[in-house]
Amino acid sequence: MHNDHPVIENMMKTGCPTGIRNLVSQPEFNGIDFFGKEINSEELIVIDNEENEVVCKELLDDYLMGVHEFKFYPVTKPLLDHFEQKIEVGNMIAEDTKRGEIINKENTDDFEFYLSTHYGFRFTIAD
Predict the structure, then answer these.
(1) What's the mean per-residue pLDDT of the chain?
(2) pTM here?
(3) Is pLDDT larger for residue 13 or for residue 54?
(4) What backbone phi and psi angles, to 5 degrees, belong to 54?
(5) Which residue has the higher pLDDT, 87 or 30?
(6) Distances from the Cα of 46 to the Cαs of 54, 70, 78, 90, 104, in angstroms?
(7) Are 106 and 30 in contact (CB under 8 A)?
(8) Cβ neighbours of residue 94 closer than 8 Å, sequence gap 6 or more
(9) Mind listing the pLDDT tens digit for each residue in 58-110?
(10) Which of 44, 73, 76, 94 qualifies as a FRET site for 101, CA 20 to 30 Å off?
């Protein structure tokens, strides 16, 4: 009995060589962010127009701490944020130390709006 090579057998069964189907389903490479992380298509990214940098959204807090001197911590007593919204005890806040502002990190829309209007950040999806 003659057995073909596993790649040939897979091609006979599926119509394509081993690995090609997985390769096709992989996201498209779209560059490298500020931290050296690969950016793939459809990934959430943040563009810092002031610094001319791109950051994967999952690393935004680290970027803000390192480049823009933000601090992140939980609220220990109720207070009002930049938008005059009450922040509850235990909520995470972002302190913009350069501007002396507090933003409720729990309110994603307000946080992104603040970064967009005060720093020129753009939130988008890599294409």
Answers:
(1) 88
(2) 0.77
(3) 54
(4) -120, 135
(5) 87
(6) 6, 16, 30, 26, 19
(7) no
(8) 61, 64, 70, 71, 72, 102, 103, 105, 111
(9) 999 999 999 999 999 999 999 999 999 999 999 999 999 999 999 999 999 99
(10) 44
Tokens found for residue 70? 């933000």
- CA distance linking residue 29 with residue 16, whole number of Å: 22
Calpha distance 126→87 (Å, rounded): 32
100: alpha, beta or left, given left = phi > 0 and alpha = psi -120 to 50? left
Give the Cα separation of 85 and 111 in Å (integer). 12
pLDDT on residue 2:
58
CB 47 within 8 A of CB 41: no
The dihedral through the CA atoms of 97, 69, 84, 118 has a sign that is positive
